[in-house]
Write a structure and sequence with these properties.
alpha/beta; 7-stranded mixed beta sheet; 15% strand
Length: 402
């Protein structure tokens, strides 16, 4: 009954963590959830008011598949203003989240056997989306414990005659690494030698960055490659709108048009009320983000200092996003003394952590770089401090044999 292609697909690891946390909390367990990537801050009031007005004024019907013109124009203005991209309402389309935008790109462009280069660690959904679109995910490992980006040499080695796409994600989920303009230019030099390779630039964490780090995207620093780049973004992370489900894309007109045709059959238009809310978010006041970033950076500093003091683990300092990706190789093979549980893999360690310490984390296996745990620090400060105490006690109770 179920296709062989579908049988290759795994349930999203982050959604799986959330489901398990919900079950444990419902059973009366005290769980601090650092496993799911969601902003701490909710949707701004002016965005909610715009949605209320849209509903009361009857803006609850179908829209054009690619989104209302005023939203697409606002997105084009954002791309021009913040990223210096040559975007217009006509080469912008909206979807039910950045995830759908990425899948639309892959679905309309991949032929059976086409390869997609995915630097690891990667967002959990990339490889499975490639498989669903009949492509072949080609994972390229990076030296992530040192905080390094994909190098030009690594990219050159990975490209074959079957390579169709490279997926870049900056700031990165799960490591928080931001690609500098120079690092992107190094990749651009390689891409110029391989004109068949196109790029999906997933910029969803663009506005969440620390230490005064600037943001650059590939089509911005290498405008001669712009006709080979699809730039993806959305309102989920920067505006606390994960449940509103609005993502957007700009890129070559032919590809954007094809994505619209595909979406017209797969899902039709995004939610009309959410579109109005997204326009209010993108076009409205942006000053509130400064206080949010200050809060996230404070929590980033707390967790970085704490991890450095935990036994058997280490982590590069995140440049952006709200994750820290913790190398737990020093704990592998150990036994948790009070419980007798073993940690032979990061999956087992994550299971041990939630059962014995009441802290949920996502195992690195899901991100293509093990052994590791991804921790989301976009939580209440007191919860993060308590989670740190629990993790330190749990990791400290793991003993190596011999």
């Amino acid at each position: 009954m179920i296709s062989k292609r579908q049988q290759q697909i795994k349930f999203s690891a982050t959604d799986g963590v959330n489901k398990r946390v919900g079950a444990l909390v419902a059973a009366g367990k005290n769980i601090i959830n650092l496993g799911v990537g969601e902003p701490y801050f909710g949707t701004p009031d002016h965005v909610i008011e715009a949605a209320k007005t849209a509903m009361s004024s009857g803006q609850t019907r179908y829209t054009t598949v690619s989104g209302i013109h005023s939203l697409r124009a606002a997105i084009a203005d954002k791309f021009q203003r913040d990223n210096q991209l040559n975007a217009t309402a006509e080469n912008v389309m909206t979807s039910a989240g950045a995830k759908q935008s990425i899948f639309n790109v892959l679905a309309v462009s991949l032929e059976e056997g086409d390869e997609v280069i995915i630097p690891a660690p990667y967002w959990v959904s990339y490889p499975d989306m490639v498989l669903l679109a009949r492509g072949v995910p080609k994972v390229v490992s990076s030296n992530w414990p040192s905080g390094k980006a994909l190098s030009g040499d690594d990219l050159e080695t990975a490209i074959t005659m079957r390579t169709k796409w490279l997926i870049l994600n900056s700031p990165n989920n799960p490591t928080g690494k931001i690609y500098t303009a120079d690092e992107l230019l190094e990749l651009a030099d390689v891409l110029r030698r391989h004109p068949q390779v196109m790029v999906i630039s997933d910029d969803i964490y663009e506005y969440i960055r620390f230490d005064g780090n600037t943001f650059a995207t590939l089509a911005q620093v290498a405008p001669d490659l712009a006709d080979r780049v699809v730039t993806i973004n959305g309102v989920s992370k920067a505006y606390g709108m994960t449940g509103w489900r609005i993502g957007y894309a700009t890129g070559p007109a032919e590809l954007i048009d094809a994505m619209g045709v595909y979406q017209s059959q797969a899902a039709s238009c995004p939610c009309s009320v959410s579109q109005v809310a997204a326009e209010a978010a993108i076009s409205g006041p942006q000053e509130f983000r400064a206080a949010q970033l200050e809060y996230y950076e404070e929590l980033r500093d707390i967790i970085v200092e704490a991890v450095a003091d935990m036994p058997g683990v280490s982590a590069p300092c995140p440049d952006g996003s709200f994750y820290i990706y913790v190398d737990v190789s020093g704990l592998m093979g150990g036994t948790h003394q009070p419980s007798g549980r073993q940690a032979k893999s990061d999956l087992e360690l994550a299971d041990l952590l939630i059962e014995e310490a009441g802290v949920a984390a996502t195992p690195g296996e899901a991100f293509g770089a093990s052994p590791a745990l991804r921790l989301c620090f976009a939580v209440q400060r007191d919860d993060l401090v308590e989670a740190i105490v629990r993790m330190k006690d749990c990791f400290g109770a793991i003993r190596q044999s011999g």
